[in-house]
Amino acid sequence: MTAAPARKKKPAVHRGPRDTDFVLPTALTQGHRSRGPRLGEDIWDLREFMPRTSRQRFVNLTGVTSDLERRTVKEYLYARLRVPVGRLARPIKVTWLAEDGRNFLRTMLTLAAIGVPRLQDLRKEHLDSFLAHVRPLGPGTVENQITTLKTIAVLGDHFSGDRLTFVPWPYRSARQISGLQQGTENATARIPEEIMRPFLTGVVFYVQTAAQDVITARRELTCVDATEVPRSGQGGARRKFEQFIAERRTQGRGIPALPLERLARRPDASVVDGVVQAPNLTMVELLTQVRSAIHLLPLLEEAGKELGYEEGGLPFSRADWPPAGRPWRPEFSRSSLEAETSYVRTACWAAIAYLSGMRDAEVRDLRRDCARVETAADGRPRYKIHGRVYKDRKVTGDEADWVVLDLVHRAVEVLLELNDDPTHLFGYTASHGTLGLIRQIPQRLNDFRDHLNELFSDAAGPFIPAPAVTGTDDTDPQDGEAQAVSDTGTVPTEPMAWRFDTLQFRRTLAWHIANQPFGMVAGTRQYKHASFAIFEGYAGTSASGFADEVEADKATAKLDYVEDLYHDWNEGGQSAGGATPRIEAEFDRIRAELGDLPGTAASPERLRTMLRHLTRTLHPGILNDCFHQPATAVCEKRSKGLGRPLPMLNMCLTCPNSRRSSVHLPRLHQARDGAVNELGDERELPTHQQSALGHFIATLDSLIDELRQTKRPETP
User: What is the DSSP string of 313-365?
Assistant: First the structure.
């Protein structure tokens, strides 16, 4: 019996989507008016299906000249929305679609540069050339393009014309090949205190004071514009202009100057101290209620030569800037009023972002009814902001609440007055008549920094000083909240203005909360009364993820603190307490392993790695640190009724888990002096209080003497 001849296996038929198919899956378009763009279109309009805060709401493929490549990138994006790929094992969000398309096209440009015009032409021997071409662009670019190439290979069955015939580097990840190091600690720049203090002062002044001046001026200017200007009659316009000039002469004031941004209209005019030496005819017409007086421009020019020129002209009231005791800015002009309106919006963004911990996209997506006030259990009002979280969520996001201060609600009130968008708090009608949403926040923040310096700097120096280091750029293409990475490679040696970005505000607030080693009380001391609500609001978890960032910063702060303790000990600092032998034995072991002796330099990264385990039990304290061990902790034995450990001040001082070092000595003295003051005249206190205070003072005296007299044996 002969075997039947084997049938030849038919080649796989790859059918991609049709031109008439909708780009977006049905689930993403439910509840919308349309199904969105079709695959055959070269420009995909995705605005209806994405938050208004998204930067890239179109996919534009008109610049792709090759029909095959255009078809392949469309099929790639179509598949990316439907097929789970990568470590997250889920399709991409529609907010990443435009950037993913650009990644595809960048990768294709790299392939073309090494002589591979089509995906199907790529061979394993080309991979070394591919790496050699992209490595000069940095490890981030290498990882990005390798990830894209691997994704293209996985989705090959969804392409109808061009595809890879193998999986590149099948047993190595893009991270391994690129060599990109992922730091475990947050590398986002924290705004230094000397920068944040004046900047926040300016923000608060703008929200609480300057904003009202701007709102009032806008209202009054609207009323002036709505008033019908009567005809002046024969010679009436000249008489009004002459009367206006006479009044200015009597008041010792100059003629309203042409705004600096309109200097192009008078290129022959000079500029003195930032003031254009040419009259603002439109402003004078408004102030004198004259319809049109171009023929009287020479009259104003002659008056300007005599009286000089000054900024603005609109006689609206302005509050005083408290440190100077003078109006916070010169008079308004139409253009300066619009500019100040923009600065007020920026100040409101900064107030909301910094005093809530919200991300940029979360702030700009706030609705007009976002402010809420609830009454806490103790009767105090609790101010909240209701919004949505988008990071690591579905496209529509999840609802979330942030506990804030009353200043944030004031910022919301200001924006409700300034902006007219029917839905979004930060939306307003732009000059061309369409509704817009504020964008380019990093640029706005840096412009606002420069404007504060222009207004409030004095002879002592700039209002916001310039440190010797700069911040990071907000470069993420989607929500501006991805880790910012600096590619400069060098630190500037000359002082430069601090470069703000949207990441830094959330980072700075989290750092200040986390780096208070004594909890809410010390945090309130740092932020005065304002911080109590913030700290209390983020004591637990939050849908925004901010509490998680605070916890991550707390871990870093603890490690910083332990590293300081180690260096203090290594340099001969004194310590005492029950946990001292155990902790110093660890320090001894680490120093011996590192060779961290005088005249040598230990690796900071390796030192932190070896010290990290001590942070698991560390609880920094005011009068001592606790390296908690449940078996010996006094609080574990004295708090059985509550069912949880409970720190007890007097017990902590003598607990086997406590350790005191030089950082605690000033605080021990302060506590002793406070107890002595409380003791005062013993005759005025009951006997049991005298006894308790006396015992506490004696204990502190003993601890102070112990810490002063402690001598470590010399290192052999």
Answer: -B-----EETTTTEESS--B-HHHHHHHHHHHHHHHHHHHHHTTT--HHHHHT
Spatial contact of 111 and 117, defined as CB atoms under 8 Å apart: yes
Which phi-psi region, left, alpha or beta, contains residue 595 (left: φ > 0; alpha: ψ -120 to 50)? left
Q: What is the CA radius of gyration of the chain?
A: 34
What pLDDT, on a 0 to 100 scale, did the predictor assign at position 486? 39
Q: How far is CA 133 from CA 127, 139, 166, 494, 542, in A?
A: 10, 12, 20, 34, 44
Mean pLDDT lowest for which of 126-140, 442-456, 531-545, 679-693?
531-545
Spatial distance between the Cα atoms of 577 and 584, rounded to a whole number of angstroms: 11
* 424 beta partners: 367
Residue 199 CB partners (closer than 8 Å, separation 6+): 191, 350, 449, 452, 464, 500
- Whole-model pTM: value is 0.70
Beta strands in 607-699 (DSSP E): 618-619, 625-627, 658-661
Least Cα distance to 161 among 68, 264, 34, 50 occurs for 68
For residues 75, 76, 78, 82, the Cα torsion angle rounded to the nearest 10 degrees is: 130
Mean pLDDT is highest, among 110-124, 262-276, 694-708, for: 110-124
The pair of three-digit structure tokens given for residue 632, joined into one six-digit string: 């010996």
Per-residue tokens: 537: 């609001």
Q: How confident is the model at residue 545 (pLDDT cuts 50, 70, 90)?
A: low
Measure the CA–CA gap between 716 and 529, rounded to whole angstroms: 51
| Residue among 551, 534, 511 nearest 356 (CA) | 534
SS3 (DSSP) at 473: coil
Q: Higher-confidence residue: 439 or 714?
A: 439
Measured between alpha carbons, how far is residue 298 from residues 295, 594, 640 in Å?
Answer: 7, 82, 91
Which residue type is seen at 654?
T
Q: Which of 420-424, 425-429, 449-453, 642-646 has the lowest mean pLDDT?
A: 642-646
For residue 179, which of 227, 141, 129, 232 has the smallest C-alpha distance?
141
The residue type at 343: Y
Structure tokens at 10: 């038919």
Confidence at residue 525, expressed as pLDDT on a 0 to 100 scale: 34
- Closest by CA position to 203, among listed 325, 59, 353: 353
The reported pLDDT for the residue numbered 524 is: 35
- CA distance linking residue 301 with residue 467, whole number of Å: 44
Q: Which residues of 478-497 are buried (b: 16+ CB within 10 A; e: fewer)?
A: bbbbeebeeeeeeeeeeeeb
In the numeric block, the tokens 């506990």 are attached to 403
Strands of the 371-375 sheet, one edge to the other: 371-375, 381-389, 398-404
Residue with tokens 């972002």: 353
